[in-house]
Specification:
about 25% helix, 7-stranded mixed sheet, about 220 residues, alpha+beta, two-stranded antiparallel sheet
Length: about 220
């Protein structure tokens, strides 16, 4: 199992408590290590932003702390200024028999959604589906206390937004459908248990999903 945590600066708002709001993000990240071990015997952790950086198990606890999202070193080498989600997707394409878990806010820049850069996003995903693997996306509404950066403005350029108190994060799971369903089940049983917990699940697969239906269904 390969686990990737988005280290871009906009993620910081999930780990700063927002008074009066429930923080599922911190609880989910805290438990993701156990959930991943339920799927595979070997688990490899990474941070991704401008590049992918391996994380030792002892550093997983840093993901739920604000310092994890601060710039380390010079501004040019910062890992919190971009969110190159295509990099985990490429690894998933090259290692189709593994399970890949990507935790992100799915906030992409304009340039990632056009031309050759967009193809870098879609090509590995199409290849994964052609290989008979599936992609599960779990979107979870969560408390947020931070800044959303680089929002495109109609007149051009970008702006920042600091008044959001709720914002979704996403857990993308790539691999065998049974492992995706197992991870979803573990999250539901351990974390999404209150009526007010808001989450949605989508499964993308190239294989038919067969299920007996009665007339009512």
């Amino acid at each position: 199992v390969f686990v990737y945590f988005d280290q871009s600066l906009s993620m910081k708002g999930y780990v700063v408590e927002q008074p009066g709001q429930k923080n599922l993000y911190v609880n989910v990240i805290d438990d993701l290590q156990q959930i991943a071990e339920n799927v595979g015997s070997e688990v490899y952790y990474h941070a991704f932003g401008r590049e992918i950086i391996p994380l030792s198990e002892s550093k997983i606890s840093q993901v739920i702390k604000p310092d994890f999202y601060k710039c380390k070193g010079s501004a040019v080498a910062c890992n919190n200024q971009e969110s190159k989600i295509e990099e985990p997707f490429k690894i998933a394409e090259s290692l189709p028999d593994a399970t890949h878990i990507v935790v992100t806010d799915l906030f992409l820049s304009d340039k990632q959604l056009v031309g050759g850069t967009l193809k870098q996003l879609t090509k590995p995903l199409k290849s994964i589906l052609k290989d008979g693997k599936s992609i599960g996306i779990i979107g979870v509404m969560n408390s947020f206390n931070g800044t959303i950066f680089d929002i495109p403005a109609k007149e051009g350029g970008t702006f920042e937004y600091m008044d959001s108190i709720m914002r979704p994060f996403y857990i993308i799971v790539i691999g065998d459908q049974k492992n995706i369903n197992l991870i979803k089940k573990n999250l539901e049983e351990q974390h999404f248990i209150d009526e007010e917990d808001e989450y949605k699940f989508a499964l993308i697969t190239s294989s038919p999903v067969l299920q007996k239906l009665n007339q009512k269904k």
